[in-house]
Amino acid sequence: MKKERLYRLAIGALHAVACLPLWVLYRMSDCMYVAARHLMRYRRRTVAENLARAFPELGDGERRQIERMFYRHLCDCIVETVKLLHISDEEIDRRVQVEGGREVERMAADGRPVVLFLGHYGNWEWVQAVTRHYARPATSGQIYKPLHEEVMQRVMGRIRARFDTISIPQKRAVRTLLHMTREGKQWLIGFIADQRPNSNTPHHWTTFLGQDTAYVTGGEEIGRHTDAHFLYLDIEKTARGHFRMAFRPVVPAEDGGPWPYTRGFMRMLEHTIRRQPAYWLWSHRRWSGTRPPGPAAGSTPR
Questions:
Q1: Backbone dihedral angles phi then psi of residue 142, each to the nearest 5 degrees
Q2: Of 158, 190, 272, 279, whose CA is between 20 and 30 Å from 121?
Q3: 3-state SS assignment for residue 206
Q4: Residues 84, 19: contact at Cβ < 8 Å?
């Protein structure tokens, strides 16, 4: 009962905040930026180290500018995510321009499911708005890693259901999607596939942003078992609170290495990041592991 009361209080408070116009929420974001970057210094060292590794050719001033833009964008993402609790279809359509919806429908005309690769780029919580731009597949959703805090998990579940998408826990993804496929249900499911792999799983390696990078293979593995199509969602921030999201067929790596679609996605994501570097999640500790020496199992060239 205590958790239920906390959930009701939290969702009620967030609903009240979400009723505010976005221009007011962005003033709140400006205050959050000062607190996060200058007072709390939230992961400042991690952000600076990641940018230095990814962009050694840039000067200190250029990297600091990217860092400032990243923190402002991160705070914007927080208020934009809360706004999903109270945003009209018309407003989200004005703010999220989607390209390639017809391509999704054309690809899905054969009845096969669709694996949608994306990264922690732009506002990934607003990605669910793309479902308004295609009619098939009828079922859309995302894979998520449950939060440890139950109340916040319920809050995020409510937010992520704004456009009637389904959320599938990471550990149940294979079983759930195979079951849906066997039942003849066609789906388009988003896989945020740029996170660091679980330390308990075997690692596959490639080069990403100039770094030896371990990558997850769950999306491609499920896609193989379900004979799915593979798409990438390319995201560009066109103004504050405005995004262009475009469906692109994944171009698989052609070097003969394993998991060509996953590595093809990572190359496409790298292109997106280099185009507008401030909008990737630089506070993530992405490169804490080390590629094993020699021809380790699963290692791949770029």
A1: -145, 155
A2: 158
A3: strand
A4: no
pTM over 0.85: yes
Q: Do residues 300 and 257 touch, judged by C-beta distance below 8 A?
A: yes
For helices 218-226 and 173-182, give the axis angle rounded to 10 degrees. 20
What is the distance between the alpha carbons of residues 220 and 193, in angstroms, rounded to a whole number?
10
Closest among 154, 145, 147 to 7, alpha carbons compared: 154
* CA gyration radius, the chain: 19
Q: Is the dihedral of CA 170, 97, 245, 272 positive or negative?
A: negative
Question: Using CA atoms, how far apart are residues 165 and 128, in angstroms rounded to an integer?
Answer: 7
* pLDDT tens-digit series, residues 85-139: 999 999 999 999 999 999 999 999 999 999 999 999 999 999 999 999 999 999 9
As a whole number of angstroms, the distance between CA 76 and CA 241 comes to: 8
* Residue 190 CB-half CA count within 13 A: 25
Ranges of H-type helices in the chain: 2-18, 22-33, 44-54, 60-83, 89-95, 101-108, 150-160, 173-182, 218-226, 260-275
Task: Outline where 161-235 has alpha helix (H).
Answer: 173-182, 218-226
**Residues 75, 81, 84: CA angle, nearest 5 degrees:** 150
The residue assigned the tokens 């475009």 is 246
Stretch 1-18: mean pLDDT, rounded?
92
In this structure, what are the phi and psi dihedrals at residue 232, rounded to the nearest 5 degrees? Answer: -120, 140
Which residues lie across from 214 on neighbouring strands? 205
Structure tokens at 180: 């849906």
